[in-house]
Structures are given as structure tokens and as C-alpha cells.
Design goal:
The structure is a homodimer. Chain A has about 200 residues and is an alpha/beta fold. Chain A has two domains: about 50 residues, RecR Domain 1 (Helicase, Ruva Protein, domain 3, Orthogonal Bundle); about 90 residues, 3-Layer(aba) Sandwich (Dna Topoisomerase Vi A Subunit, Chain: A, domain 2). In chain A, about 45% of the residues lie in helices and about 10% in strands. In chain A, the strands form two sheets. Chain A has a four-stranded parallel sheet. In chain A, a hairpin with a 6-residue loop joins strand 1 and strand 2. In chain A, helix 6 packs parallel to helix 7. Chain A is globular and about 70 Å long. The relative contact order of chain A is 0.08. At the A-B interface, helix 1, helix 2, helix 3, strand 2 and helix 5 of A face helix 1, helix 2, helix 3, strand 2 and helix 5 of B. Chains A, B: GO terms for molecular function: DNA binding; zinc ion binding.
């Protein structure tokens, strides 16, 4: 942006946000300067604090600014069920969509040897130890239904059985509201094979 | 976001950016925390400075952190031509697309009595005074080809004539690379009526 080096710097810095290119960054900068200076200042301050203070919960590995996140330290969550997810986004999706009241464990990735992600990087030793403590009865494995997610699920199920914990997996099948005609082949084949008896 | 109040605050604050809703804000926050903490900190600091320090150039009204913006204080820009635009975005578009080497005047809006935008809000007294100083020979009116933009252009042309300055307007017509079939009616009618003699 000719005219103001600082404005040019702001537009460039905004491009670190995912999905934001030159045009959007310019629009954002002008929008903030013209109409939302107060909220822009607030965003800058919250962002600085978040980048500096948010680490990982020592128990579930989710993002948290405290050593123990509010979900792990909450007394109203059940302690017999543990749900394993790949990322905080998946945790958020489950929290928003379901009535789940148990605890979580966030892998922050999936088993992917080619990317250098093995059991250590995903904190599986920590998970294994927790499963062995005897408090947890069910391990809900909610990794994504991708090749790597399934491999991770397989590994997690073994860990659970070794710790005497019952492993369960989210059901796969035809999405609600979908039309059979447009469901992909492998999902349809899976749903057909796993058909359930109506009572 | 369950787990971290500060993260929830960051996601909420990101929604002040135009075009960013809940899902995008969440994706941005996770992206910054997982992969771009350094650039996130940099963005926070630049944004804070920009919100606090960027004001308007006293001569052209464009955004500037100095009393006189770099375009107005540049010795390599012509002083006989002044281009009037509605917004800094329009200025940026002209700078990027054309080889224009003159000066600018940014209205920061358009004449729109219903929105309380009259000649005072657009700094037209200041513009009028500058036109009367005798240095400027041509006023290029680059307001948008909308109803309000055209009304503003009409007003600006009168100001220019009163100051003894030649007013010009960007050419309207069929866009380059467009197909006549898909050009809207009024543009086509205008282009047809304003046809030019080939030499």
C-alpha cells in the first residue's frame, strides 16, 4: 500500500492467517482502520496473550493456558470414559454436537511415520499409563476415518486392551440427511455390510 | 472452545475481521497456535501499532502514520494532476494497475446525504482550496460508476471548473476481455453511444 509503510506491514502480517491472501488482507486492514479500531486493538492484545500464554494441558494435551485445562479439572465430567481425538478442532466438534460428558485425550496429530509422527510424538506413553491406572472403563476412539486415522485407531485399541479398557469406535455409515445415490462407494459398502437389525 | 477461556476469547476476537465467522475464526486460532506462533505475535504487535498510529494524511486524507503521507511528500510525483478516489482501496487499485505518477485525494466515502455524508465529511472544502491554488491543471475523477459515485463526480466536476481546473472522468465501456453477450445492458448502451472514431 503506497502511502503508509505501517499499513503495508499490517497487510503483509495479516497474510499469516490461513486462507487470507493479498486482497483479503487489504480488505481486513482497511475494515479495521475505518470501522473497528477498538476491536482491532482488542484482537491485537488477545492475540499477543494467546500466543505467549497458551500451552498444552498436562493431562489431555489440549490447548490450555493453565497446567490443567478446564475440562480436565472439571468435577462435573465423568472419569470412566475417555475420548481420543486427533485435534482440538475434533474435540470442539464433538463438544458442540454431542452430549458427551466424559474426558478427552488430544493426540495433536495421527500416527504417520513418514511425517516423523510416532507414538512418542502423540503422547501415547502418557495415555497408556493413564489407561493402566484403572479409573477408565471405556476408550472412545474418535480419530478420523482416513487411512492414517484408522491405523492410529488400531494402535489405540491395542493400547486399551492391554490396559484392560474397553475400546469403542464411532459408527461409520450413511450420513443422516444424505441420499444413497450420492454417498461414496466405500461408505455405502461399509454401511451395507454393517446393517443393523431393527427391533 | 471448551478447555481454554483465552482460546475462546481469541476465536471471538478474530470475528471482528470482515468475512470471518465462527468456523474460520476457530481455524485461524488453531493454525496460529499450532504452526505460526512467531508470526502471530508479529501480527499482534503490528496490528496494535497500526490501530494506534495510523491516522490520515493532512493533504490527501489517505491513511498515513505521518502528518503527510509518502505519496504526498514524494518529490517524484507530478503536482499538476490530482486523482480523486472514494477509498484507499481504489487508490491502491489505480497504483497497481496504471502508470499514474500524479497525486491523489481520497474522499473516504461518497456524497450520500441519507448516510449523513455531505461535502464537509468528504473534505471538499479542503479540495476546493487546493484546486484554487493554481498548481493543479487536471482533476481526474475516479469515483465509482454507481449512482452516488456519479453524483459525487458531477459535484467534483463543478468544483474543478470553479477553480479553473480541467475535470476528466475514467472512460466507461465494455471491459477488455469481456464478451458483448455477457456485458450488462446499460454498459453496452453507454459503450455504443460513446463509440469512438478509429484513425
Amino acid at each position: 500500500m503506497s502511502g503508509s509503510p505501517l499499513l503495508a506491514e499490517l497487510i503483509d502480517a495479516l497474510r499469516c492467517l490461513p486462507g487470507v491472501g493479498g486482497k483479503s488482507a487489504q480488505r481486513m486492514a482497511f475494515h479495521l482502520l475505518e470501522r473497528e479500531r477498538e476491536r482491532g486493538l482488542k484482537l491485537a492484545s488477545v492475540m499477543e496473550q494467546a500466543m505467549q500464554r497458551i500451552g498444552h494441558c498436562s493431562q489431555c494435551r489440549n490447548f490450555s493456558e493453565d497446567p490443567l485445562c478446564s475440562l480436565c479439572s472439571s468435577s462435573s465430567r465423568e472419569r470412566q470414559v475417555l475420548c481420543v481425538v486427533e485435534s482440538p478442532t475434533d474435540l470442539a466438534a464433538i463438544e458442540q454436537a454431542t452430549g458427551y460428558r466424559g474426558q478427552y485425550f488430544v493426540l495433536m496429530g495421527r500416527l504417520s511415520p513418514l511425517d516423523g509422527l510416532g507414538p512418542e510424538e502423540l503422547g501415547l506413553a502418557q495415555l497408556s499409563q493413564r489407561l493402566g491406572e484403572g479409573e477408565i472403563e471405556e476408550l472412545i476412539i474418535a480419530t478420523n476415518p482416513t487411512v492414517e486415522g484408522e491405523a492410529t485407531a488400531h494402535y489405540l485399541a491395542q493400547l486399551a486392551r492391554a490396559g484392560g479398557v474397553r475400546p469403542t469406535r464411532l459408527a461409520h455409515g450413511v450420513p443422516l440427511g444424505g441420499e444413497l445415490e450420492y454417498v461414496d462407494r466405500s461408505t455405502l459398502a461399509h454401511a451395507f455390510g454393517s446393517r443393523q437389525l431393527l427391533d
